[in-house]
Amino acid sequence: MVHPLEKTSGGQIVRGLFIGRFQPFHNGHLEVIKEMASEVDKLILVVGSAQESHTFEDPFTAGERHLMMSESLEANEILNYYIIPIMDINRYKVWVAHVRSLVPPFDVIFTNNELTSTLFAEAGVEVRRPKLYDRSKYSGKEVRRRMALDEDWHSLVPAPAAKVIEDIGGVRRIKTLSGGKA
Amino acid sequence: MVHPLEKTSGGQIVRGLFIGRFQPFHNGHLEVIKEMASEVDKLILVVGSAQESHTFEDPFTAGERHLMMSESLEANEILNYYIIPIMDINRYKVWVAHVRSLVPPFDVIFTNNELTSTLFAEAGVEVRRPKLYDRSKYSGKEVRRRMALDEDWHSLVPAPAAKVIEDIGGVRRIKTLSGGKA
Amino acid sequence: MVHPLEKTSGGQIVRGLFIGRFQPFHNGHLEVIKEMASEVDKLILVVGSAQESHTFEDPFTAGERHLMMSESLEANEILNYYIIPIMDINRYKVWVAHVRSLVPPFDVIFTNNELTSTLFAEAGVEVRRPKLYDRSKYSGKEVRRRMALDEDWHSLVPAPAAKVIEDIGGVRRIKTLSGGKA
Amino acid sequence: MVHPLEKTSGGQIVRGLFIGRFQPFHNGHLEVIKEMASEVDKLILVVGSAQESHTFEDPFTAGERHLMMSESLEANEILNYYIIPIMDINRYKVWVAHVRSLVPPFDVIFTNNELTSTLFAEAGVEVRRPKLYDRSKYSGKEVRRRMALDEDWHSLVPAPAAKVIEDIGGVRRIKTLSGGKA
Amino acid sequence: MVHPLEKTSGGQIVRGLFIGRFQPFHNGHLEVIKEMASEVDKLILVVGSAQESHTFEDPFTAGERHLMMSESLEANEILNYYIIPIMDINRYKVWVAHVRSLVPPFDVIFTNNELTSTLFAEAGVEVRRPKLYDRSKYSGKEVRRRMALDEDWHSLVPAPAAKVIEDIGGVRRIKTLSGGKA
Amino acid sequence: MVHPLEKTSGGQIVRGLFIGRFQPFHNGHLEVIKEMASEVDKLILVVGSAQESHTFEDPFTAGERHLMMSESLEANEILNYYIIPIMDINRYKVWVAHVRSLVPPFDVIFTNNELTSTLFAEAGVEVRRPKLYDRSKYSGKEVRRRMALDEDWHSLVPAPAAKVIEDIGGVRRIKTLSGGKA
To answer: Is the pLDDT of residue E180 over 70?
Structure first.
């Protein structure tokens, strides 16, 4: 386990930002966070669309997603992160300022999304591409689909996140909300 | 240092909630957080009025306040906390639901504020009174007043929070915003 | 005609809640309201999506829908109701608190919608299933379709509601808005 | 008791609008409503600032205020009214349209407030001045002051409204919120 | 070039309103504006959905659209106009009041849109139909499609607007946002 | 009269921004705009708090203020300006991005306000101090005070702005709204 304050010697603290909806948190997220957390002193994890919950696309509240993430990261001895829920503002030209006002100062954003990349680059932030994980398997959509159809979803999700989902009755909620969409 | 997952043996995780504006984070906050953090497994610290900044009453952004807090808590080896910024909703009857949707599930709220106490109690949450610190000295208002008038404020604020304030030019900002209000 | 204050003898007043968009109010609504109004002392009828009007899916203002309902209920000698327009909040986890702040205290919600049922049950409200009417005939969508295509819609709507629709030029409005959607 | 549908013979239904905050509903309100309700077929009572509650100036939710009003009006055999909660929009030039979208069509507004009078007159609505009641006695402010100070407030409020206030613990709430303001 | 204050002799100033999204400003817009500007003393050009940008359907900010318009109109010696950005309000029944509060008083609206026509007519505004241009060629959608696919779009857009688009890197933005939608 | 496109030879167009509430537009505004308009190619005049009207502090709508300004500027042969109404966002850290999304790109902001200066400087915009006019005489507050008390206000306001105020019944509105505040 790397203690964040030991990592940079004599230099400036480097903070990175990563934005996701985490509906739910899955092994693909964990894998890429592991890598990013090793590159920076502090990794700021933004729980996007924080206002959403109880729809098939966004079943879990920001607080529930926070718990899935923090429990999984602690279990994996990743400790140099902040988790920050951010509600949508629906005005792209103002969105970077919205995010910046709510999170600690950061130096780099990790994203493979072209729009996010464009908007932060225009605002003068360094953009890095995080490594790609297998999106056909590790995607919130696929996890939700499997939950709705009683297929295996545990193998896609860190065990502590799965426990949170079960504690809050998440599978039943997703079935209620699926309405034939899966 | 108490590791949060070791504290409760065989039992349920207990999470507590504490809400403040932290404009800025001061020694009174630190003192009461130390106590609360020893009473629960996880302490959820809500940075209230997160949308505010750059006024004399609310000079710092939610992200800046987050950094003051996390740096100070780490330096004091308090690690079992979550910091969550929450923007005002300005509808008290809906506010508890607003908070609940954004933070992990919690069992108890710590507050000495009568309105907060009433609203959470009505919603079925256990209310505990945190110990009181000396408010004539330890208040955001007093710290801001001293900053505006070049009096000693460092003695009221944890050193890591003071460093954050200085890194972001916080004293100059407060002087600009004071406009004779101090 | 049952006077609401005579119905419960010696006991507590029971209030029930029913939520609809009522675009427009039709005989299916009337039928189910008759039944619910006989089960409780006061029936609170929430006009949902109250901010909407002048679209093909939501052609009528909340005020126009209110009038269709109150005129039809009076004509049917149902008097133990309140009609309350509520604008959407688009945050499901906060929605129950939003509704609760705007309507008188209630004991039971009538709904066949799974999401509504889940959200109110999570908030500790008793959920009852109202009887089902023939949705292939009695649905706002079908009424609007018939209006747009000059088919018979009067047989689906209480006469006083039809009169309101005609007084406000509702059929012409729906034709203008249909744009080939019917 | 006058049944609203019997009152106008052969003519057009006339609807009037009256706006108040009703914090709480008092005898002055009742008196003026009695008069207005006798002048029009239907009286639309708007519960303004519907989003407010749990402050000393606005202690009661819109739903609670609705109940105080409907119980008092029924007890006084005034039945030709609608009660409609409306949240503030804080843009005066748009406010009349906001109100109009949420209430049934109306022909006249009753108001002694100059701004309200100006705005509705500009929008082409007939303005009538309701009779004035003794505002030194019958005002929400005076009722709240007496509640906070344990003085007699029952004599200022219709008995059914007083019962609602007591059922919801309203006096205790006001004392909690008064904070020396009374 | 017609100076606006010279045009009406002895009479009342006539102001007209025209609403568009102008994503981007094209020759069809220019053609119809020429005609309308010759009919009234002042033409108020509302840049609608002003909050939108950086999506494929709404790629340009209100400020960027303003510049495309003003540069093109000046180059064509049309000077009797105001350009006013207006953010959506998403409540049709309130929308006319929203527009009216933000623009100078106007006498006539130019529109071929049925909903716009209905809403302004209901509010007592004279509606005129502007002449129709060839929409298969001159539409924002067609211009954006051509940009995304590297087809000729310059022939559809006034040269000064094309220069603005190139100065801000508009084609690249549209390609980034197209995501296979073109 | 200087035509904006002739002023800069061979170089880049320079645009400046100036923000005011203009309640109402007065000779102090005119004087400083004259100077600023001579320094840049295009002057962007932001009508701030555009959502406000019909209060004593903010009596006029954004559209009315626009008209006062454009009529006065034209009469003074200042033509190289844009007038853009902007509604408040009440989040200072996001405000610069809000403004930027709604106005054409600009290079310099003219302001003597410390907060505005700080926020735009932090965002990398060049700040220039416009010359100061006599604020004891030329202030919206003083003009409104004189209107409310029937003192001479015409001498403080450009004649075309005074005509707009009279055309819309502005003095009567201010008297209605003053309520003893003047």
So the answer is: no
